[in-house]
Amino acid sequence: MRTAIGFGLEQHELADERDLQLLGHVQRLGSITAAARAAGVTYKTAWDRLRNLQTRLGQAVIIAAKGGRGGGRTQLSDKGQALLHYYEQLRRQQDHAVEPDVALDAVADLAARPLPLRKTSARNHLQGVVTAIARGGIRDVISVQLHESLQLSVNITHASTLALGLKKGVAVYLLIKAPAIRLAQQQGAQANVFCGQVRRSRRLRDQQELEVQIAPDVHVVTMAGQNQAQPLRKGDEIMVHIDPDTVILGVD
């Protein structure tokens, strides 16, 4: 009989045993392709698991080294090595009743990430971390980091800031309806204007539904009228504006 090992913070699942074993294969083989083969999964499945693990942890667990004469090599980051080391110690404890000699605080500073809501009417469910709060009378401007290259401003009342317990470093989720995201003409004229690429386009009567990638792993859904000079297609570069007054912030 063998118990399964997984890591989490309160109700937030961070890593299960398949993630941790995959880290071990990457550490041993130095390649996601080889690690996928050793785990008996496809490359896409392995890459998706590693990417999702990094998203949940909020930190990198792998580092891709540039190729040279010997080719590139994928390695674990310091945090990935600490996580794998702790898992291996726990595995030995479970299997052989060996007390682990690595303290959990080696990886205990990993950020908790909120679980997305199961069902809402909003098409866009995003996750981020508060980086700054600017007080402006009865309203506050909350800066949320969605990706290392992407900051989003959200306007809420100061009472809401207090009620949610918002401060720098708090993990939040964001709900945005598709009509609150509009096509923009130029970047920098107002807050929350982002350059992106159309990843999917679908016609709905007199409108187009667009899925736009505005940063790695950050996609938003918006609607565009058919009064465009020509329909937008996959691969087109566009700019979108997210209205800071329409974003709903939430915490667990």
From TrEMBL:
PANTHER family: DNA-BINDING TRANSCRIPTIONAL DUAL REGULATOR MODE, TRANSCRIPTIONAL REGULATOR MODE. GO terms for biological process: molybdate ion transport. Gene3D superfamilies: 2.40.50.100, Winged helix-like DNA-binding domain superfamily/Winged helix DNA-binding domain. The keyword Repeat applies. This is Transcriptional regulator, ModE family. Residues 120-128 are annotated as: Required for dimer formation and molybdate binding. One of its GO terms (molecular function) is molybdenum ion binding. It comes from the Bacteria. It comes from Advenella mimigardefordensis (strain DSM 17166 / LMG 22922 / DPN7). PROSITE patterns: MOP. InterPro entries: LysR_HTH_N, Mo/tungstate-bd_C_term_dom, ModE, Molybdate_resp_trans_reg, Mop_domain, Transp-assoc_OB_typ1, WH-like_DNA-bd_sf, WH_DNA-bd_sf. Residues 119-185 form the Mop domain.
